[in-house]
Amino acid sequence: MNMYLREMKAYRKSLIIWCIGVFYIVAASMWKFGTEYSGNQSLNELVTQLPAAVKVLLGLRGAFDLSTAAGYYGLCYYYLVVMATIHAAMIGAGVVAKEESDKTTEFLIVKPVSRSRILTAKLSAGFSNVLALNIMTGISSILMVGYFNDGETFAREIMNLMAGMLMLQSIFMVTGAGIAAMGRNPKSASALAIVALLISLMMAKMIDMNPNLDGLKYFTPIKYFEAEQLLFQGGFSSIFVLLSTIIVALLLRMTYVSYRTRDLKV
Q: For 42-154, where are the alpha helices, taking DSSP H only?
Protein backbone atom coordinates (compact mmCIF):
# COMPACT_ATOMS: atom_id res chain seq x y z
CA MET A 1 0.00 0.00 0.00
CA ASN A 2 2.84 2.42 0.82
CA MET A 3 4.39 1.85 -2.62
CA TYR A 4 1.03 2.36 -4.29
CA LEU A 5 0.43 5.64 -2.43
CA ARG A 6 3.98 6.76 -3.20
CA GLU A 7 3.40 6.25 -6.92
CA MET A 8 0.03 8.01 -6.75
CA LYS A 9 1.63 10.97 -5.00
CA ALA A 10 4.41 11.13 -7.58
CA TYR A 11 1.88 11.50 -10.41
CA ARG A 12 -0.65 13.65 -8.56
CA LYS A 13 0.26 16.97 -10.20
CA SER A 14 0.52 15.35 -13.61
CA LEU A 15 -2.94 13.81 -13.24
CA ILE A 16 -4.47 17.13 -12.21
CA ILE A 17 -2.98 18.83 -15.28
CA TRP A 18 -4.27 16.09 -17.60
CA CYS A 19 -7.74 16.27 -16.05
CA ILE A 20 -7.84 20.04 -16.48
CA GLY A 21 -6.69 19.61 -20.06
CA VAL A 22 -9.34 17.06 -20.97
CA PHE A 23 -12.08 19.13 -19.34
CA TYR A 24 -10.97 22.17 -21.31
CA ILE A 25 -10.99 20.25 -24.60
CA VAL A 26 -14.49 18.86 -24.00
CA ALA A 27 -15.87 22.19 -22.79
CA ALA A 28 -14.25 24.24 -25.56
CA SER A 29 -15.36 21.80 -28.27
CA MET A 30 -18.98 21.69 -27.14
CA TRP A 31 -19.06 25.44 -26.54
CA LYS A 32 -17.88 25.99 -30.11
CA PHE A 33 -20.65 23.66 -31.27
CA GLY A 34 -23.25 25.54 -29.25
CA THR A 35 -22.25 28.96 -30.56
CA GLU A 36 -21.58 28.11 -34.22
CA TYR A 37 -22.93 24.75 -35.36
CA SER A 38 -26.01 23.83 -33.29
CA GLY A 39 -28.81 23.05 -35.74
CA ASN A 40 -26.70 24.40 -38.61
CA GLN A 41 -26.46 22.05 -41.59
CA SER A 42 -23.69 24.09 -43.20
CA LEU A 43 -20.99 22.08 -41.43
CA ASN A 44 -22.44 18.80 -42.76
CA GLU A 45 -22.53 20.31 -46.24
CA LEU A 46 -18.94 21.46 -45.92
CA VAL A 47 -17.81 18.00 -44.82
CA THR A 48 -19.47 16.32 -47.82
CA GLN A 49 -17.43 18.54 -50.13
CA LEU A 50 -14.08 17.59 -48.60
CA PRO A 51 -11.87 14.99 -50.32
CA ALA A 52 -12.10 11.51 -48.79
CA ALA A 53 -8.46 11.58 -47.66
CA VAL A 54 -8.96 14.88 -45.82
CA LYS A 55 -12.06 13.55 -44.07
CA VAL A 56 -10.15 10.48 -42.93
CA LEU A 57 -7.23 12.53 -41.62
CA LEU A 58 -9.59 14.80 -39.68
CA GLY A 59 -11.58 11.89 -38.26
CA LEU A 60 -14.75 12.93 -40.07
CA ARG A 61 -16.98 9.93 -40.61
CA GLY A 62 -20.24 9.95 -42.59
CA ALA A 63 -22.33 8.50 -39.75
CA PHE A 64 -22.12 11.68 -37.65
CA ASP A 65 -24.68 14.47 -37.95
CA LEU A 66 -22.49 17.40 -36.95
CA SER A 67 -25.51 19.67 -36.48
CA THR A 68 -26.42 17.74 -33.30
CA ALA A 69 -24.56 17.71 -30.01
CA ALA A 70 -24.34 13.90 -30.03
CA GLY A 71 -22.97 13.78 -33.57
CA TYR A 72 -20.46 16.55 -32.92
CA TYR A 73 -19.27 14.80 -29.76
CA GLY A 74 -18.82 11.58 -31.76
CA LEU A 75 -16.30 13.50 -33.87
CA CYS A 76 -14.54 14.90 -30.78
CA TYR A 77 -14.30 11.42 -29.25
CA TYR A 78 -11.47 10.45 -31.62
CA TYR A 79 -9.30 13.28 -30.32
CA LEU A 80 -10.14 12.43 -26.71
CA VAL A 81 -9.03 8.85 -27.38
CA VAL A 82 -5.72 10.08 -28.80
CA MET A 83 -5.16 12.25 -25.73
CA ALA A 84 -6.12 9.50 -23.28
CA THR A 85 -3.98 6.81 -24.93
CA ILE A 86 -0.94 9.11 -25.02
CA HIS A 87 -1.38 9.65 -21.28
CA ALA A 88 -1.80 5.90 -20.70
CA ALA A 89 1.32 4.97 -22.71
CA MET A 90 3.41 7.54 -20.84
CA ILE A 91 2.07 6.44 -17.45
CA GLY A 92 2.72 2.76 -18.21
CA ALA A 93 6.30 3.42 -19.23
CA GLY A 94 6.89 5.96 -16.49
CA VAL A 95 5.79 3.92 -13.48
CA VAL A 96 8.07 1.04 -14.47
CA ALA A 97 11.14 3.02 -15.51
CA LYS A 98 10.91 5.95 -13.07
CA GLU A 99 13.52 4.79 -10.54
CA GLU A 100 16.06 3.89 -13.21
CA SER A 101 15.51 7.21 -14.97
CA ASP A 102 15.85 9.13 -11.69
CA LYS A 103 18.85 7.06 -10.54
CA THR A 104 17.03 6.03 -7.35
CA THR A 105 16.78 2.28 -8.00
CA GLU A 106 18.83 1.39 -4.94
CA PHE A 107 16.15 2.87 -2.66
CA LEU A 108 13.58 0.58 -4.25
CA ILE A 109 15.42 -2.75 -4.42
CA VAL A 110 16.52 -2.67 -0.77
CA LYS A 111 12.89 -2.96 0.32
CA PRO A 112 12.05 -6.46 1.71
CA VAL A 113 9.46 -7.15 -0.98
CA SER A 114 9.53 -9.08 -4.23
CA ARG A 115 9.84 -7.42 -7.60
CA SER A 116 6.43 -8.80 -8.54
CA ARG A 117 4.86 -7.01 -5.61
CA ILE A 118 6.68 -3.79 -6.51
CA LEU A 119 5.49 -4.03 -10.10
CA THR A 120 1.92 -4.77 -9.00
CA ALA A 121 1.89 -1.62 -6.87
CA LYS A 122 3.29 0.42 -9.74
CA LEU A 123 0.82 -0.90 -12.31
CA SER A 124 -2.07 -0.45 -9.87
CA ALA A 125 -1.11 3.19 -9.44
CA GLY A 126 -0.76 3.57 -13.19
CA PHE A 127 -4.19 2.10 -13.82
CA SER A 128 -5.69 4.31 -11.11
CA ASN A 129 -4.35 7.36 -12.97
CA VAL A 130 -5.73 6.04 -16.26
CA LEU A 131 -9.12 5.34 -14.68
CA ALA A 132 -9.24 8.78 -13.05
CA LEU A 133 -8.66 10.49 -16.40
CA ASN A 134 -11.30 8.28 -18.00
CA ILE A 135 -13.85 9.17 -15.31
CA MET A 136 -13.02 12.86 -15.64
CA THR A 137 -13.52 12.63 -19.40
CA GLY A 138 -16.85 10.86 -18.94
CA ILE A 139 -18.19 13.33 -16.38
CA SER A 140 -17.09 16.32 -18.47
CA SER A 141 -18.67 14.80 -21.58
CA ILE A 142 -22.00 13.98 -19.93
CA LEU A 143 -22.29 17.49 -18.47
CA MET A 144 -21.28 19.39 -21.60
CA VAL A 145 -23.13 17.27 -24.15
CA GLY A 146 -26.25 17.30 -21.98
CA TYR A 147 -26.08 21.08 -21.73
CA PHE A 148 -26.00 21.54 -25.50
CA ASN A 149 -28.28 18.62 -26.39
CA ASP A 150 -31.57 20.41 -25.61
CA GLY A 151 -32.04 18.50 -22.39
CA GLU A 152 -31.87 15.05 -24.02
CA THR A 153 -29.60 12.68 -22.14
CA PHE A 154 -26.69 11.09 -23.95
CA ALA A 155 -25.20 9.56 -20.81
CA ARG A 156 -25.61 5.88 -21.73
CA GLU A 157 -23.91 6.35 -25.08
CA ILE A 158 -21.07 8.32 -23.49
CA MET A 159 -20.58 5.61 -20.88
CA ASN A 160 -20.22 3.06 -23.70
CA LEU A 161 -17.67 5.29 -25.37
CA MET A 162 -15.76 5.66 -22.09
CA ALA A 163 -15.73 1.88 -21.64
CA GLY A 164 -14.19 1.53 -25.09
CA MET A 165 -11.70 4.27 -24.28
CA LEU A 166 -10.74 2.52 -21.04
CA MET A 167 -9.95 -0.67 -22.96
CA LEU A 168 -7.70 1.29 -25.30
CA GLN A 169 -6.06 3.07 -22.37
CA SER A 170 -5.37 -0.30 -20.73
CA ILE A 171 -3.81 -1.69 -23.91
CA PHE A 172 -1.43 1.22 -24.33
CA MET A 173 -0.63 1.45 -20.63
CA VAL A 174 0.59 -2.15 -20.54
CA THR A 175 2.33 -1.54 -23.88
CA GLY A 176 4.31 1.25 -22.27
CA ALA A 177 4.97 -0.87 -19.18
CA GLY A 178 6.14 -3.78 -21.33
CA ILE A 179 8.51 -1.59 -23.33
CA ALA A 180 9.95 -0.14 -20.11
CA ALA A 181 10.39 -3.59 -18.53
CA MET A 182 12.00 -5.19 -21.58
CA GLY A 183 14.05 -2.23 -22.81
CA ARG A 184 17.62 -1.46 -21.85
CA ASN A 185 17.29 2.32 -21.88
CA PRO A 186 14.61 3.45 -19.39
CA LYS A 187 14.78 7.07 -20.54
CA SER A 188 13.55 6.10 -24.01
CA ALA A 189 10.63 3.96 -22.77
CA SER A 190 8.01 6.72 -22.94
CA ALA A 191 9.14 7.80 -26.40
CA LEU A 192 9.00 4.24 -27.71
CA ALA A 193 5.53 3.78 -26.21
CA ILE A 194 4.34 6.90 -28.03
CA VAL A 195 5.88 5.58 -31.26
CA ALA A 196 3.88 2.35 -30.85
CA LEU A 197 0.72 4.43 -30.43
CA LEU A 198 1.51 6.57 -33.48
CA ILE A 199 2.05 3.46 -35.59
CA SER A 200 -1.39 2.21 -34.55
CA LEU A 201 -2.92 5.60 -35.40
CA MET A 202 -1.25 5.67 -38.83
CA MET A 203 -2.37 2.12 -39.59
CA ALA A 204 -5.94 3.08 -38.67
CA LYS A 205 -5.82 6.01 -41.11
CA MET A 206 -4.42 3.77 -43.86
CA ILE A 207 -7.26 1.30 -43.33
CA ASP A 208 -9.84 4.10 -43.51
CA MET A 209 -8.34 5.34 -46.76
CA ASN A 210 -8.05 1.92 -48.39
CA PRO A 211 -10.89 -0.60 -47.77
CA ASN A 212 -8.66 -3.35 -49.17
CA LEU A 213 -6.60 -3.10 -45.98
CA ASP A 214 -9.61 -3.81 -43.75
CA GLY A 215 -8.08 -7.07 -42.54
CA LEU A 216 -5.35 -5.10 -40.78
CA LYS A 217 -7.87 -3.68 -38.30
CA TYR A 218 -7.34 -6.73 -36.09
CA PHE A 219 -3.71 -5.62 -35.59
CA THR A 220 -4.64 -2.01 -34.87
CA PRO A 221 -6.18 -1.46 -31.41
CA ILE A 222 -7.30 2.08 -32.32
CA LYS A 223 -9.83 0.46 -34.69
CA TYR A 224 -11.33 -1.73 -31.97
CA PHE A 225 -13.58 0.84 -30.29
CA GLU A 226 -14.45 3.59 -32.74
CA ALA A 227 -17.36 5.92 -31.98
CA GLU A 228 -19.10 4.98 -35.22
CA GLN A 229 -19.08 1.31 -34.25
CA LEU A 230 -20.13 1.87 -30.64
CA LEU A 231 -22.93 4.32 -31.44
CA PHE A 232 -24.38 3.24 -34.77
CA GLN A 233 -23.19 -0.25 -35.67
CA GLY A 234 -24.24 -2.52 -32.85
CA GLY A 235 -21.94 -1.47 -30.04
CA PHE A 236 -19.01 -3.55 -28.85
CA SER A 237 -17.60 -6.25 -31.10
CA SER A 238 -17.02 -9.46 -29.13
CA ILE A 239 -13.97 -10.20 -31.29
CA PHE A 240 -12.34 -6.88 -30.44
CA VAL A 241 -13.15 -7.22 -26.75
CA LEU A 242 -11.57 -10.68 -26.76
CA LEU A 243 -8.51 -9.44 -28.67
CA SER A 244 -8.11 -6.56 -26.23
CA THR A 245 -8.25 -8.93 -23.26
CA ILE A 246 -5.66 -11.24 -24.84
CA ILE A 247 -3.33 -8.35 -25.69
CA VAL A 248 -3.49 -6.94 -22.15
CA ALA A 249 -2.95 -10.39 -20.60
CA LEU A 250 0.04 -11.21 -22.84
CA LEU A 251 1.68 -7.84 -22.31
CA LEU A 252 1.18 -8.08 -18.55
CA ARG A 253 2.77 -11.51 -18.56
CA MET A 254 5.75 -10.27 -20.58
CA THR A 255 6.10 -7.24 -18.30
CA TYR A 256 6.21 -9.32 -15.11
CA VAL A 257 8.64 -11.87 -16.55
CA SER A 258 10.99 -9.18 -17.87
CA TYR A 259 10.85 -7.04 -14.74
CA ARG A 260 11.63 -9.99 -12.45
CA THR A 261 14.69 -11.07 -14.45
CA ARG A 262 16.21 -7.83 -15.75
CA ASP A 263 19.25 -6.10 -14.31
CA LEU A 264 18.04 -2.80 -12.86
CA LYS A 265 20.35 0.14 -13.39
CA VAL A 266 21.39 2.02 -10.26
A: 42-49, 52-58, 69-102, 105-109, 115-148
